[in-house]
Write a structure and sequence with these properties.
By secondary structure, the chain is mostly beta strands. The protein has one domain: Neuraminidase (6 Propeller). It has no helices and 24 strands. The strands form six sheets. A four-stranded antiparallel beta sheet has the order 1-24-23-22, with no helix packed on it. Strands 2-3-4-5 form a four-stranded antiparallel beta sheet, with no helix packed on it. It is globular, with a radius of gyration of 18 Å. The mean pLDDT is 96.
Length: 311
């Protein structure tokens, strides 16, 4: 049976960062330009959101051991919010750190981030983009949060820090800097929280795939599911052989990220955007979250961030 793609939420401007919480069977995600965090519960079809003041919100990761704490980004800041998942505003916002405070970097912002298997937050930035598609390149960096007010820089000259995934069995981390149009692999040390030995394991150019790679997730077979912005698809990729296993298409072009969810982690929840590019508006259902069933794959649970390990 072919995979089934269906729309499950109302539209946002720039949906990103999906995170499935298996304990409450709900999906969390953000609307970056809408400056909001979102929760979708399939069992009740409830979709709630909270507005965040202060700038674009590009990532949301639940905090280990707490039902109402989330680590988010606000522009160049990392912050912890207290949110009950229902109210239209968080009850508390605590800023942890602001990065890239140099005058030449004031237009930067965080763009994507996830917790790794050790509960360590990885988050990357991008340079100013005054108009979609007109980016100041190589202005960003990739960091880990190593203290409540301290980060470690792993990569510099990043253009658009994006998708992250880990394979603990193979000791690999997968990472995307979108304009490079590649998926990269690094040797990953879970104890030290370090990456080395970059290697390109998938190249969109060689497969003649339009658009740029965006967010991604990994399944229990160790294969990646890569969202392609402006390409209207998800790519199912074997990172060990660089094989394109399959390509799932969607009824809109700006596909941004994916996460496995559902009771058996066999449903893919896929975020999208409806950005106007060069005067062209994206029509419905662009900006919605899609649910994909029937892929034959199962995912690994998203990791929560562990703030208790931070000094």
């Amino acid at each position: 049976m072919a995979p089934i793609v269906e729309v499950v939420t109302e539209r946002v401007t720039l949906g990103e960062g999906p995170h499935w919480d298996p304990y409450i069977q709900s999906l969390f995600y953000v609307d970056i330009l809408g400056q909001s965090v979102h929760k979708y519960t399939p069992a009740t079809n409830a979709h709630t959101q909270a507005y965040i003041e202060g700038g674009p919100v590009s990532l949301l990761v639940p905090v280990e051991g707490h039902s109402d704490l989330f680590l988010i980004s606000i522009g160049r800041k990392l912050a912890v919010i207290t949110w009950d998942g229902v109210s239209e505003k968080p009850s508390k916002i605590e800023t942890l750190i602001e990065v890239e405070n140099e005058p030449e970097n004031r237009g930067n912002r965080f763009n994507d981030g996830k917790a790794d298997p050790a509960g360590r937050l990885w988050a990357g930035t991008m340079g100013p983009e005054p108009e979609i598609g007109k980016l100041e390149p190589e202005m960003g960096s990739l960091y880990t949060l190593i203290g409540k007010a301290e980060v470690k820089k792993h990569l510099s000259k990043v253009s658009i820090a994006n998708g992250l995934a880990w394979n603990t069995k193979l000791k690999k981390m997968y990472y995307i800097d979108s304009p490079k149009r590649t998926v990269d692999q690094y040797d990953y040390d879970i104890v030290k929280g370090t990456i080395t030995n970059r290697k390109v394991i998938f190249d969109l150019d060689s497969h003649k795939i339009p658009g740029v790679p965006d967010g991604m997730t990994i399944d229990t077979d160790g294969n990646l599911w890569v969202a392609v912005f402006d390409g209207g698809c998800l790519l199912h990729v074997n990172p060990n052989t660089s094989e394109l296993i399959k390509k799932l298409t969607f009824p809109c072009k700006q596909i941004t990220a994916a996460a496995f969810g559902g009771p058996n982690l066999d449903e893919l929840y896929v975020t999208s955007a409806r950005l106007t590019v060069k005067g062209v508006e994206q029509k419905e259902p662009a900006g919605a979250v899609f649910k994909v069933t029937g892929t034959g794959a199962r995912g690994i649970p998203n990791y929560k961030v562990n703030l208790d390990n931070l000094k």
